[in-house]
Amino acid sequence: MPLSHPRRSALSEQVITALRQQIVSGEWPVGSRIPTEPELVEQLGVARNTVREAVRALAHNGLLDIRQGSGTYVVATSELAGVMHRRFADADPRHFAELRSTLESAAARLAAERRTEKDLKQLDALLVRREETWASGDTEAFVTADATFHLAVVAASHNEVMTAMYADLGEVMREWLREDVGSELTPETHMDHTRLVDAIRASDAATAGQEAAGYPFLCRAGRIGRPAGDADGPAPDAGTPTAGADTPTVRAGADAGGLSSPVGG
């Protein structure tokens, strides 16, 4: 994708636009490492300093993360997503779980009512991918697969505003999942999302909403503290599921020890 060579500032803007397009189009997905500086120089046909300036600009805007000794990674698909990441990276885990529960429950209900055959095929494929990455033991691949699955559920709602908002929270969501999963994927903490997909396929909005609402709260034990002003802990309600028949399915390993603290919502 060689570029023309106008004055320096305009050329830098062209490079920034070209790199941003690679991100927005999905050619460089969130979590991926972008080509090295020499590779970009060759691809774009511009000077090293111009590439470096463009990469730094996108990092400043929150789309890229420059990691010394490792490379430069895509962390957001838009400037707004970058802002979301910076603003909410240190948010109270309970508050983020409540936001996820609200958004994902509403989206799942709409998805059950509006999903197309194409949506179902996508969800089935992503569910398989999620299981494959879990089985591989690759935590980062699992985080990406799990986040992609949840975004696809929201997208199946065919509500463009809701989908765009959820996508802009994508890296905050991945950070949440990374902390939950930790450094190792263990069978007793596996959470199954089959019931959610089945409910969407069956156009069962109530069950789909209930399944989606519960996943964010079934995180690592002790991670979500008590709500402010509640000395005895949260009372059970629709947004904070307790163990029982209505709790989203958790598939454990040889025993059922993972029911109290599954991860990978």
What's the short story on this structure?
This protein has 265 residues and is mainly alpha-helical. The protein contains eleven helices and two strands, in the order αααββαααααααα.
Strand content: under 5%
Rg measurement, Å:
20 Å
- The helicity comes to 55-70%
Q: How many DSSP E strands? A: 2
Please summarize the sheet with the most strands.
2 strands, antiparallel
Form type: globular
Structural category is mainly alpha
Q: Summarize model confidence as the mean pLDDT.
A: 81
Low-confidence regions: 231-261
The helix/strand order is HHHEEHHHHHHHH
The span between the termini is: 39 Å
Number of helices: 11
Give the spatial strand order of the biggest sheet: 1-2
Characterize the structure shown:
It is a single chain. The chain is mainly α and 265 residues long. A two-stranded antiparallel sheet has the order 1-2. It is globular.
Supply database-style keywords.
265 residues; mainly alpha; two-stranded antiparallel sheet
Topology of helices and strands:
Layout lengths: L7 H17 L12 H8 L3 H13 L3 E4 L3 E4 L4 H10 L4 H22 L2 H20 L2 H17 L4 H9 L1 H12 L12 H8 L3 H10 L51
Antiparallel strand pairs: 1-2
